[in-house]
Design brief:
This protein is an all-alpha fold. Helices cover 55% and strands 0% of the residues.
């Protein structure tokens, strides 16, 4: 998983998309296996699920709200971990990759997994996974790149689908405009789910 996430920083778009597909399929497959085995078969250590591990690997790719659109060269650190926000300036393509994968993967996390403490590879923080994700993502709602802003909104919508109104207590720093936009997208997703349930 580490090689897949770090390879995208300097890979052609076709390779980036392939890595994205592999990580999403890995999360889906491990989630299905967890359901069949009671959640013990796909743990990657200390009870951390594959989906949680993927997200912690992606967190270093959200350094700040300032994003460069120029190509960068990124390698793993000497200890084999993903580069931290102090090691490199991430390009927008890399961050979009991280957003797309994370938005897909959070669907396989329970409320407990999101709100429980998880150590990240970059900082060793014991904060909840949700807190660590929001710390990186919320500033990107103000990104100058529209694709990044939209991806941040889509990720927040998926997080809301996982934990519901609890999410709002973590979003007090959002501007009224940002809250309104997020509410619109959340309501839209809820209506789509209701329509699908009605058809089925």
């Amino acid at each position: 998983m580490l090689r897949l996430t770090t390879a995208t920083a300097h890979a052609p778009m076709s390779v980036t998309l392939y890595c994205e597909q592999i990580l999403c399929e890995l999360a889906h497959t491990s989630h299905t296996t967890d359901i069949l085995t009671g959640g013990t078969a796909t743990s990657v250590g200390s009870g951390v699920s594959v989906s949680q591990k993927i997200i912690t690997l992606l967190l270093p790719y959200f350094p700040s709200a300032t994003i460069t659109t120029t190509a960068t060269t990124t390698t793993t650190n000497s200890n084999g971990t993903a580069p931290s926000h102090n090691d490199t300036t991430m390009n927008s393509t890399t961050q979009l990759f991280a957003f797309h994968v994370m938005t897909h993967v959070v669907r396989f996390l329970s409320t407990g997994q999101l709100l429980g403490a998880v150590d990240t590879m970059s900082s060793g923080s014991g904060a909840s996974l949700l807190h660590q994700v929001l710390y990186k993502v919320i500033p990107l709602l103000s990104s100058s790149i529209i694709d990044i802003r939209q991806s941040a909104v889509f990720l927040l919508v998926e997080l809301y689908a996982c934990i519901g109104d609890v999410l709002w207590s973590y979003l007090t720093s959002l501007t009224p405009t940002q809250k309104t936009l997020l509410t619109i997208y959340i309501d839209r997703q809820l209506k789509q789910k209701q329509q699908l349930q009605y058809r089925n």
